[in-house]
Fold:
Amino acid sequence: MPSTSALPPPDPSARARVVVANISPSIDGGQSRVKRVRGDRLAVQVDLLLDGHDKVAGLVSYRQGTTGAFGEVALVSLGQDRFGAEIALTTVGVLQFTVAAWVDEFATWAWGFDRKLDAGQEVTVELLQGIALVTAAARRASGTDGEALGNYTRLLSVEAPLADRARIARDPALALLMQRWPDRTAESRSAIFEIEVDPPLAQFSSWYEFFPRSTGRDGRHGTFADAETRLPYVADMGFDVVYLPPIHPIGASHRKGPNNTLQAGPEDPGSPWAIGAAQGGHKAVNPALGTLEDFRRFVARAQELGIAVAIDIAFQASPDHPYVREHPEWFVRRPDGSIQYAENPPKKYQDVYPFDFAGEGWQSLWQELASVFFFWIEQGVRVFRVDNPHTKPLPFWRWCLRQVKDRHPDVIFLSEAFTRPKLMYGLAKAGFSQSYTYFTWRTSKRELEAYLTEITRPPISDHFRPNLWPNTPDILPEHLQIGTRATFAARLILAGTLSSSYGIYGPPFELMEQTPRPGSEEYIDNEKFQIRSWDLDRANSLRPIIKRLNRIRRENPALQSNESLVFHPVDNELLIAYSKSTVDGSNLVLTVVNLDAHHRQTGYIDLDLAAVGMVADESFQAHDLISDARYLLRGGRIFVELDPNVMPAHVFRLRRRARTEHTFEYYL
Amino acid sequence: MPSTSALPPPDPSARARVVVANISPSIDGGQSRVKRVRGDRLAVQVDLLLDGHDKVAGLVSYRQGTTGAFGEVALVSLGQDRFGAEIALTTVGVLQFTVAAWVDEFATWAWGFDRKLDAGQEVTVELLQGIALVTAAARRASGTDGEALGNYTRLLSVEAPLADRARIARDPALALLMQRWPDRTAESRSAIFEIEVDPPLAQFSSWYEFFPRSTGRDGRHGTFADAETRLPYVADMGFDVVYLPPIHPIGASHRKGPNNTLQAGPEDPGSPWAIGAAQGGHKAVNPALGTLEDFRRFVARAQELGIAVAIDIAFQASPDHPYVREHPEWFVRRPDGSIQYAENPPKKYQDVYPFDFAGEGWQSLWQELASVFFFWIEQGVRVFRVDNPHTKPLPFWRWCLRQVKDRHPDVIFLSEAFTRPKLMYGLAKAGFSQSYTYFTWRTSKRELEAYLTEITRPPISDHFRPNLWPNTPDILPEHLQIGTRATFAARLILAGTLSSSYGIYGPPFELMEQTPRPGSEEYIDNEKFQIRSWDLDRANSLRPIIKRLNRIRRENPALQSNESLVFHPVDNELLIAYSKSTVDGSNLVLTVVNLDAHHRQTGYIDLDLAAVGMVADESFQAHDLISDARYLLRGGRIFVELDPNVMPAHVFRLRRRARTEHTFEYYL
Structure:
């Protein structure tokens, strides 16, 4: 048995009585950055645990960036030992915060003093205890506060009736001063947590992908100059991000022919993902598209139209990439001396060499790959779609994306990972701003509700921002292959109303291309391997619906974030209904989609009134922003009928009726 | 824009490709110790995230204690990037574990090699890749494994038909050897996590509290010797922990009289919680109870009967405690020079001085208080009930309990905290082995189901072990004040079957004392302030039911832990039904309680068959372990009828019927 003196003394830090725990928002205890956008209000919450009935006080210290002085905002009690504070996120970049808390000696004293006064007890000694606290605060305080506290000390100490001095001791102005000058010598402090504050585009974006090489006249290889002429078409539909497949020189070795055949003809342009040739690699442009200057002009023209240009970064090399010759240490060498090509055994992709991210040359490789982003940032690019990030190490992305974000916090990265759920989330935690999702294959009400609920709520939504795509150059899902016009319209509206970010691969989407390469989930005559010409003016183009949808998205802030997404029960499995609303409730959008592409469906929605901030029996107007029809409704049970041959969806703006003092009714 | 060379190189640790995440069990990312008992199997789970389709391997390293060598157990895939391993907990004390993971190069190679072989591809180069991996492993390996791997290298390298060599390369024995000698140079490793392995009594315990001073003959002050004579009574009822209120000298200053009156008469014994007098403090015994040697004999006698003695540690002092004179720096001094007594304004407790846990003398105070535990451990005590721990700082408990557990891991601490939920859980995280609960006031089916579900599932159950008390010397809840015999029996059976640990304060409980001090939730003529004599042989004593319940608990391992607790729907709000079972399903207990103390209630239970491991339409025997009645049942819908005037509960052991090869039916 150790004697008392044999026990080690507790660490001095143990003297701080408050336990600071369970801070939100945070990811894995602060190991990754929580994502928000400029304009958000960050709601920090924390448990402050203090023994007994003493009062606790605390604050959130925060700063823009990772150096410099901290600002402070007081924590207020939310009940049950939970405390909260809000921080307005006004600047793009990292925001750091930490929580500090201490025993509020004056509040504790005041609480007991009041109760004793109420019970008519003698409080002479208690008053002296209060004076001692004020005297100590006066010593800590500076400026006019110090003077004011000194005055209180004197006022409380003079000869005067106890009742008068007690009244002074409980002066609300004194309580405020004491709050401002607490004794924080034994405060508890949390670790530092980080928030990545992105530009609003990271959360609310409408993407349009197209191949610039298919914009040439008369079937010729399109150039950046040709692609510029496509931009007004895209802008008119209301998109704000144009995304181009890789724009680099394309390798000739093992070049793929049309429909992914192994032998390319002399005129075949090859796959843009076979990156690198004699003309250069990841920091060069394919001469068939033009020059770097042409590209910069394309970016500038897009910018004039309110469109950001996203380019595709695919970290892999064709056998003709200059890296292969200059940096053999960045590739895996096979026992026969050749370089290891990409494989998914037994499939071989001999036109593509993967990098060896953990090989001998890993550090210089990582530095070079990060510099690729810096090169394109220099050319005006701020949005990157990253190809297959799940085939590169997570620690690489964590390092690389931080290198970029630390210097260019306005940059946005879209992760093109269609892989296992935890790996997709792992990439988001590593720093990707947005991610592709399984939406592409989720078609039933049950699937959509479960999946969208998962990805739009914390903890997932704190790091993972969904970007919903009905199609991509790689994926023509089965339901589009066999679908009707209503299928395309429904998938478009689902994507654009379920998620604040969505995208389509056009023109195949708006032209409702649906023929696959036989037996596959890919388009026939895919632009990945050949140049296509599209008749954009085809009469049945979905362009008007897309334009309407994007306008609705711009005009309704409820659709510009995902946290408020709520699904409402409908008594028909083929009808799905959900709402989104702004924090203040001023904008409330209810979407209803008929998932049956062939038949008219009817049903009753049971609107979750509490979730949308309405009261039972309230009357309101439902304004269909697609058809412009208006309905006057009352209560939460809403009848709907949707004929897919007309339009498979309603996108209602719900307007509450209000009664003014003059009994004049209007819609808010 | 930084040039490539301007970017800092990544930290060497970033080369490890596997991300190790989401380790369970763990509390707050490993900040507190997870609790288990000796005999448990610890199921460790972890996400291992690796880019692409490469194969991952990993293990859990663990050791008893915090020094010495680590043992290892391989992680196996559970699907969806989750991996698991089990560790048998054979030793009381801290167990440390950490997770290591790496890319399994050989498994990755073998997977691709098999697929290429299956596709009939030429694999000469691939075989060379495999040989290189085996050669490298042979260099790493020692002993016979090294020789064996060397042999494989030679066998694979000789001139022989490719097919023969391919067959050797895929020899399962080689795969096993390669698993044993992986390349771990770029492995990822988690932080160290800790498990507190307690003695089984920490999880499964039946407590009986009594006042030794009420065991004297003819109303005299009872002694430890008198209390010894009470032990067979307690042992016969089947309890395994006897808990005594504080046994220290009782202060005379401001001593309380009967029923908590402010003036004590000369013969009044005072409250045992007013600790300390001229005869000593926390390391002395009240002379009226006997000597330290008498106490040790009491402990030894209890031990002979299979009973552990728990004493109450209340860290507070009467004004007469030697600490007050010897260590004035351990108390708060008021401005008038007096010592601050305990308060709950406007209430004053002038017979008790709280310690100043964060004052100038805090470190020596903490050391002294910790030494109190060591003193009583020296006297043979291994179980401590700690009074009002929520009025002392959490960091104190974290430090103090670790001092004890690090030296005496078999010690158990029960937290007597009836306070806010997060503070109760905070105390459990700080190291208390068991805790009082809100069960004392939870009476409706809805309350009981919600609360017991919360406290018997992770994350709460990983640190918080409930101990359910129908009554305490401080609490005679209203439902007992107005209840019938059925109320007492029902509360007893609920406590002892809902939770693996429970306790009663006797004899008032078994004698169904129910008269409160008027207007209060306390017993009239409370033993806290006076000596009582009890007629243990009263005809209506609950003793036979208690004895039966404790026997059922001992004989049914299902009732000795809480993780398997499942509530089953009953179509009557006054009937509650729940089951517990062992991991292997061999012991399955279904309890049904009538919560109505006055009326016969009937209803149908809808047994959750999946939760109890039974199939639909299975027939089984329900054996009521209280009444010994047996029922043959089939399927999950069970009719029950309970008359509170007979017995308010069934405790069924469910036995599944099995059919042998000889078509002879019996019950497992």
Residues 124-140 of chain A form the longest helix (17 residues). Residues 370 and 520 of chain A are 35 Å apart (CA to CA).
